[in-house]
């Protein structure tokens, strides 16, 4: 096993995998595997999201979070445990913490349209009436990121020595979530809890995360030697990282790296930050039992057998979204 200490996250071109020669495709798989084995994050270009679509979604998202609190609250439905719609300021906290993060966000989930009975497992999406393009734009971005995620999972499967299509049926109509986030301005820093941060250090729950907008300052990843590395993605790149479900499946061969979003310096406290992660989840019945190929005497099995649905339920309770 290699042990590279990256100073920044590696950059890859998804076209090498989808349109490249067999050599380019193999190199993509090898580079991706090395990056996920070491730091758990890469930045990719040619992910299929156009600049225009990205811009339109950001514009809709900024307009939504600018609505009066009383309107936004109409889209917060407690019975949904934050699975769909608006989730207000300070509601979510990282696992093992009590102080809420300095953010508000909105969850858009899977729209099942092909008669798959899994539709009954998912609550309906909630759409803000005030914004004419929010629904169409977020669903279009959802599809694009889901497709890019499926391609990344093909490369991951090959790296793990599995069939290229190993994940295909597991993520079909999966429980993925698109999450536009607003890290709101802090008018009076004295009034927030002393240990409150934009997003406290955490690992993501899902298989992989595709993050639009990580080019804004603040996102950092924890390197194996304990050093925090800032993410320096370009505007046209999407950052793709390993989540806890994929780490479980691979017995930590692929690393779900701890990351956080730090507060801005005091003079910038009154500014907003936006980001839009797409959390790629499988269907709830996916078995996350460690792959046999990832367990040996040097790497004893670390995780008990669990389905994706069981793991998700456990984690949502730990982060304050589910009671
Ligand atoms: O806002 C970001 O850049 C990252 C957000 C994040 O890590 C998360 O929501 O899980
Ligand atoms: Fe995260």
Please give a structural write-up:
This protein is α+β, with helices and mostly antiparallel strands. It has one domain (11-318): Jelly Rolls (Sandwich), CATH 2.60.120.330. The chain contains 8 helices and 13 strands. The strands form 2 sheets. Strands 1, 2, 3, 4, 5, 6, 8, 11 and 13 form a 9-stranded mixed beta sheet that branches. It is globular. Fe (ii) ion binds at residues 202, 204, 259.
Number of helices: 8
Overall geometric form:
globular
H/E element string? EHHEHHEEHHEEEEEEEHEEH
Major pleated sheet = 9 strands, mixed
Please report the first level of CATH classification, the CATH class. Answer: Mainly Beta
Write out the CATH superfamily name. Answer: B-lactam Antibiotic, Isopenicillin N Synthase, Chain
Protein name: 2-oxoglutarate and iron-dependent oxygenase domain-containing protein
Family: Belongs to the iron/ascorbate-dependent oxidoreductase family.
Keywords: Iron, Metal-binding, Oxidoreductase
InterPro entries: DIOX_N, IPNS-like_FE2OG_OXY, IPNS-like_sf, Oxoglu/Fe-dep_dioxygenase_dom
List the helices and strands and how they pair.
Blueprint: E1 11-13, H1 14-18, H2 22-38, E2 41-45, H3 51-65, H4 69-73, E3 85-87, E4 104-109, H5 134-159, H6 168-171, E5 177-178, E6 181-183, E7 199-202, E8 208-212, E9 219-222, E10 228-230, E11 238-242, H7 244-249, E12 259-261, E13 273-280, H8 308-318
Parallel strand pairs: 1-2
Antiparallel strand pairs: 2-11, 3-4, 4-5, 4-6, 5-13, 6-13, 7-12, 8-11, 8-13, 9-10, 9-12
Helix pairs in contact: 2-5, 3-5
């Amino acid at each position: 096993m290699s042990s590279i200490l990256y100073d920044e996250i590696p950059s890859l071109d998804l076209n090498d995998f989808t349109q490249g020669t067999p050599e380019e495709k193999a190199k993509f798989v090898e580079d991706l595997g090395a990056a996920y084995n070491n730091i758990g994050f890469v930045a990719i270009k040619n992910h299929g999201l156009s600049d225009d679509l990205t811009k339109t979604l950001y514009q809709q998202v900024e307009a939504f979070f600018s609505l009066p609190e009383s309107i936004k609250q109409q889209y917060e439905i407690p019975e949904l445990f934050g699975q769909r719609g608006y989730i207000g300021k300070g509601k979510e906290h990282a696992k093992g913490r009590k102080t809420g993060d300095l953010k508000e966000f909105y969850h858009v989930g899977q729209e099942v349209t092909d008669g798959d009975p899994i539709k009954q497992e998912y609550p309906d999406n909630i759409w803000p009436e005030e914004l004419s393009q929010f629904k169409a734009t977020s669903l279009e971005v959802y599809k694009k990121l889901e497709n890019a995620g499926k391609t990344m999972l093909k490369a991951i499967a090959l790296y793990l020595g599995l069939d290229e299509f190993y994940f295909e049926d597991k993520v079909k109509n999966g429980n993925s979530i698109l999450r536009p986030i607003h890290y709101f301005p802090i008018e009076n820093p004295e009034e927030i809890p002393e240990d409150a941060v934009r997003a406290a250090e955490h690992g993501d729950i899902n298989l992989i995360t595709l993050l639009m907008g990580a080019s804004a300052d603040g996102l950092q990843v924890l390197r194996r030697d304990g050093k925090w590395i800032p993410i320096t993605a370009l505007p046209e790149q999407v950052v793709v990282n390993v989540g806890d479900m994929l780490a479980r499946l691979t017995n930590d061969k692929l690393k779900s790296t701890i990351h956080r979003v730090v507060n801005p310096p005091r003079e910038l406290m009154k500014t907003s930050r936006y980001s839009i992660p797409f959390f790629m989840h499988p269907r709830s019945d996916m078995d996350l039992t460690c792959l046999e190929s990832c367990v040996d005497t040097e790497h004893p099995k670390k995780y008990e057998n669990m389905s994706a649905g069981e793991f998700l339920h456990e984690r949502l309770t730990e982060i304050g979204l589910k009671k």
